[in-house]
Sequence to fold (187 residues):
Amino acid sequence: MKLLLHICCAPCAVAVVDNLKQNQDIELSGFFYNPNIHPYEEFQKRKQSVAAMAEDYGIPMDYYDEFALEYWKNSLKGDKASRCRVCYAKRMDETAKLAREKGFDAFTSSLLISPYQDHELIKSLGEQMAQKYGIQFYYQDFRELFRKSQNMARGKGYYMQKFCGCMYSYDESDHPKKPIYYFETVK
Ligand code: SF4
Fold:
């Protein structure tokens, strides 16, 4: 099966990639599509980290480089549940679309590893996008691999982000090592 994996970040994806690469029936490729990540400096750090991981594991990649600040500024407004739905849906939609265009059999997402994301909603949106594009959604509950993945990423020196991705999640994060960014253009 030719499988396209949406990759949100290296710390989430590394154990997923490691797991899927062990399946002889899967031919794996990755897609970095996360225009929700702001600011651009943070976007670049995560993208470069994913590129390093992809090289380590020898998986072909597609990258989406557009930095759609205005779109996300407006789309992600509101309460967390509403904005995360928009954010997941956009990423699953683009992944399913690319998978269909490039002749993959199925798609999935490294978002399915995180205990901090709405797993059931991501699964449901994956199934909806599969129907929309007439392609298979490959579902696997990767959550038991989450800690392992974080440890693997640390061991390999991949960038470990301190907030989910959007400017709102930056404000919500109280991580002591959060980088200092200014979102003066979006306030
Ligand atoms: S909190 Fe995370 S999943 Fe939710 S909208 Fe922001 S970046 Fe997307």
The domain at 2-172 is CATH 3.40.50.620 (Rossmann fold). The mean pLDDT is 93. Residues 36, 76, 83-84, 87, 164-166, 168-169 surround iron/sulfur cluster (CB under 6 Å).
